[in-house]
Specification:
4 strands; alpha+beta; single chain; Ribosomal Protein S5, domain 2; 123 residues; 41% helix
């Protein structure tokens, strides 16, 4: 398995991000939330992923960037869960939604549980 997070997997398209927030469905595993929509772009990757940490919970950019780094890292190491069982193309946005400062191990465990919950959804 290739444990990378290359540019072509990063969610950058403004139209895709807008469709995520307007028509996207969501699945949660406290404190993480995954919003997803089927990607209809031609030649799109199997998964396009973006991360977000709200300014509401962490006022300092240093703190927001720290948790975004952790979310990207947990995605990178556990994306095999999403790729193995997935035949459709999805655009995903990954949110950290609490003021609590969870450890890396706790966030990684929640990420695995969230990805498994996403895979188990009826599609």
């Amino acid at each position: 398995m290739n444990f990378t997070y290359p540019n072509h997997e990063k969610l950058k398209s403004k139209t895709t991000i807008d469709s995520l927030f307007s028509e996207g469905k969501s699945v949660s595993k406290y404190p993480l939330r995954l919003v997803y929509v089927e990607n209809t772009e031609p030649n799109a990757e199997v998964i396009k992923m973006g991360v977000s940490v709200s300014k509401k919970y962490f006022k300092k950019a240093v703190d927001r960037n720290y948790f975004k780094r952790i979310l990207r890292e947990t995605y990178r190491l556990n994306k095999a869960i999403l790729l193995e069982e997935n035949e459709k193309k999805y655009a995903l946005m990954f949110f950290y939604q609490t003021k609590d400062r969870l450890s890396y191990e706790e966030i990684e465990l929640k990420t695995k549980q969230l990805f498994q919950k996403f895979i188990d959804l009826p599609k």
